[in-house]
Design brief:
Layout lengths: L3 H10 E2 L7 E2 L1 H11 L6 H18 L5 H12 L6 H16 L4
Antiparallel strand pairs: 1-2
Amino acid sequence: MNFAPILFLASQLVLPAADGPPHLAVEQSCKAAMKLDPETGSVDACMKDETAAQDELKRKWTSFPASDRARCVAETSTGGSPSYVEVITCLQTAQDARQVPKD
């Protein structure tokens, strides 16, 4: 079985960046989301949310542990549509979990 086309397609979804957050193909994600549930909003609104999340990731990227960054990027891009909103939510959740008192 030739996996080259599959690997090529997957490589288009997430492009790692050495010094910052990955480059995600979120427009495809927004279009797919609108096809699944047109009542959720518009592609433009989705793209605004993704752009805001990307900007926040750019500002805060190095404040998150590398292990969390790697895990969250992998989770959002595995088997589906990558999303900056999902990445930042994952990172913030991991950060919040560390601050919960261990009683």
